[in-house]
Amino acid sequence: MTLKSIANKINIPLLLISFTYLAMWIVGLIGFVLSQLVSSLNIPYVIADYFILTLFYMLSMILPMIGILLYMDDIRPVSKRWYLAIPLLISAFLLTYVRDNLYMTSIFGVSFMSANGSLPFLETQIGQGLVSILFSISSILLVLSMPDIRRKVLRIPFALSIVMTISFSIYVIVTQVIRAYYSDVQIFGILHIICILLFGLFLSWFAVFEEELLSQFPDAKRK
After folding, report:
1. N or C: which end of the chain has fewer CB within 10 A?
2. pLDDT tens string 66-117
3. Are 15 and 71 in contact (CB under 8 A)?
4. Strand, helix or coil at 33?
5. Is the CB of residue 31 less than 8 Å from the CB of residue 220?
6. Residue 150: which residues within 8 A CB-CB, separation 6 or more?
7. Residues 69, 57, 8, 145: is their CA dihedral positive or negative?
8. Side-chain half-sphere CA neighbours of 160 within 13 A
9. Helices marked H in 42-154 — which ranges?
């Protein structure tokens, strides 16, 4: 089997989109491994830091946004709901800013968006919470934008996106609106993070094995 035949079997747009859900896990893992190699290989820390920053932006925003544009072009002829993927395009950008501000600066000591521009509202806890909720809702809309046959296969990710949205909405309402701090409410934040990971894994799994999964349905088509 050639690389070309493998690529033809993979749904490239959905695979690219899945990276935004898996970005922080991949960056964290590679960052940890790289930190162990910096000293032994005499790699300058500044090179390692900016490699991680570039990787972060590629996975969190650039590749997923390209994937969303390709995805909408791909399904537009077969789904009247293609435009429901647009909110994910917006929320991927906003969430990357939040991630940059929260994690890249504090953990890796490098930043791009928050260092070169300021969106004050997105640097508040309520702003960051609303962006995460928008991202979760956009995940629901992404599945709804798909043709019927794909939505049948993606019932588990659809359920995960609903749990993702509800759990973090509860977390934000309790901690930022009611401003009550119960130890038990942390479980909703953790649940949200787990759902993002699982959604990304399911989406990438579907992207790689789409033909096999859709072949289980008699009326399945590539699009």
Report:
1. N
2. 999 999 999 999 899 999 999 999 999 999 999 998 888 777 777 787 666 6
3. no
4. helix
5. no
6. 214
7. negative
8. 20
9. 45-57, 63-75, 86-99, 113-116, 125-144, 148-153
